[in-house]
Amino acid sequence: ATVGLGDYAPVTTAWQKLSAILFIWLSIILLAVLFGFISAEAESELLGDEATPRLGASRSRRVRPAALLIGLHVLSAVVLMSTESWSLMDSMYFTTVVLTTVGYVW
Q1: Which of 32, 65, 83, 104 gets the most CB atoms within 10 Å of its CB?
Q2: How deeply is 20 buried, as exposed, middle or buried, from its count of CB atoms within 10 A (0-12, 13-18, 19+)?
Q3: Residue 54's pLDDT is what?
Q4: By C-alpha distance, which of 90, 99, 105 is closest to 24?
Q5: 29 vs 6, more confident
Q6: Residue 102 contacts residue 1 (beta carbons within 8 Å)
Q7: C-alpha span between 49 and 102 (Å, rounded)
């Protein structure tokens, strides 16, 4: 087997690819939320309760980066679908692995 995106790779089913995509993105979201809570708590301890904005105070500040990331993911998958003649599942799997730098054997 090769490391990263080499020529040799085991056969991966569509279900395994979908599972990997969901696991990767849910893990990233969970870690982002947890680090957000930890940093908010630390900021509250250091600066006082009035200095820390509440979680719902600025929703657009959280939605915009998420929308850009999703847009980049979909655009990359569409480009791969058209240039490489891949299926949607293969394109989404590849872009998830590459954009998140997981580096599974392809």
Answers
A1: 104
A2: middle
A3: 57
A4: 99
A5: 29
A6: no
A7: 37
Per-residue tokens: 20: 């990997």
pLDDT reported for residue 1 = 47
Q: What gap in Å lies between CA 21 and CA 90, rounded to an integer? A: 11
63-94 per-position pLDDT tens digit: 777 788 888 889 999 999 999 988 998 898 88
Q: Is 101 helix (H, G, I), strand (E, B) or coil?
A: coil
- DSSP of 40-83, one letter per residue? HHHHHHHH-GGGSPPTTS-SHHHHHHHHHHHHHHHHHHHHHHHH
Q: What is the pLDDT of residue 79?
A: 93
> Which residue pairs, CB below 8 angstroms and at least 24 apart, start in 88-94?
89/14, 89/17, 89/18, 90/17, 92/17, 92/21, 93/12, 93/17, 93/18, 93/20, 93/21
